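Troubleshooting: if your tokenizer reports a length mismatch, compare your output against this known-good record of 128 residues.
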Amino acid sequence: MIISCPSCSAKYLVSTEDIGSGRQVKCTRCNYSWFYENTNYENNKKLEIEQISKSNIKRDHAKDQNLPVIYEKKKNIPLPFLVLLIPVIFIAIEMIIRNSNINALEFSKELNNFIETIVNIIGSLFSS
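Known-good structure output:
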């Protein structure tokens, strides 16, 4: 764009981006300083934004390397549930292999003993 000094009428070729919507400028010929207001800047930006949003521009994903990535949170099985489930499965399998009748009281006692053993082992790992 071309702007001219109001004092001496000197003309200057400047970039629209350098002036933006308005800027204080100074004439190099007469040292007069004034505020140049670019009223067309906002309208041009609005038109550019509308044109970009209407067009189907494909993004270059190679330029997006430094952008943060948003991951979806996966639903996991809670660890305490697994810690309790695994011993129950092993005890049930062991009782079936022994070919014995499953007694609920005996089963719960063995389960409690097994869980207590696991808790003691885990506790000893964290205490040392």
